[in-house]
Amino acid sequence: MSLLSARAVNRATLARQLLLERADLTPAEAVGRLAGMQGQEPKHPYAGLWTRLAGFAATDLTHAVHEREVVRATFFRGTLHLVTKADYLAFRGTLTPVLEAGLKLLGDRAAGLDQAAVVAAARKLLAAGPLTFTEIRDALIEQFPEVNDRALGFTTRMLVPLVMVPTDTRWAYPANARFTLAEDWLGKAPTPDVVPKDLVERYLRAFGPATPTDFQTWSGLTKAKALFDASELERFKDESGKILYDLPDAPRPGEHVDAPVRFLPEFDNLLLAHAKRERIIADEHRPAVFTKNLRIKATFLVDGRVAGLWTADKKRGVATLTLTPFGKPGKRSESELEREGTALLEFLEPEAKSLQVVTEQR
């Protein structure tokens, strides 16, 4: 069994995440290659694709969303993701156990909840046209006055296959977007077949080499080791002796490949797709990135690993990218961060009169 150094594991993952060089792909192709993008807030996938694709323009993704090539919906881990139409239809059924299990979070608020009745009522409401979740909850409260309103909304979100309806808003989705039935938006219902083995392959193509526990962390599915063992996968050992599984033809470019400076948006899946995240971020830096209120801050990579945080804002026409490094970057990295950061600002704030990149110490 071959040994993969920590740096080799890092480079393999970066290659699959399109972070070693910008790829010449359409947004839909890239979202498919990445096995979806966390879309907790609508602008994050835009920034995530900008950092991964050559010549990416925001209108490219907006067009793909309106053409229904990609959709924004509740998906992996019960969180909002941007995924391709094909992946939504193929894997929404696979994730049903995860979404059903998510209802346990309701606790006492689930008192009196008849899941089947709520699902039927919600489907009937949405068959008449798209609704915001406030509208869905208000309508369901009239039918189920004794049930907690959040339980009604959460049950609908988890158990009814829904997608969000885009608008002409800059990042395609307003804060209070409307939802519609997936089969109405996509022309067919998601397949009910459960095919987690296929999802294992998609995961490894986007995030491997990895362990079954890593897959479980990303997907929310359980009992993954049997799926991995039943698949035709190569096995490697990492420096700690842990077994990593991988597809035979997946890219593993080696530890000597250079990794350019890259900026990742909040909630980027690169930081969420493994149980142990040392391949991309040192344990000592995790508290600064993963907050107690469950946010994952925007980060930048130097030599393939998280090296600091970034924020962007615009005041009185001046767009500012503020970098908060975890240590002292070398001069070459500082130059690359300023160049890449300025380009990011141009993308995020195209109407700004001037741009500046500033560095502050933690």
UniProtKB/TrEMBL annotation:
Gene Ontology molecular function: DNA binding
Pfam families given in the database record: AlkZ-like
InterPro entries: AlkZ-like
Superkingdom of source: Bacteria
The entry's keywords: DNA-binding
Protein name per the record: Winged helix DNA-binding domain-containing protein
Organism: Kribbella deserti
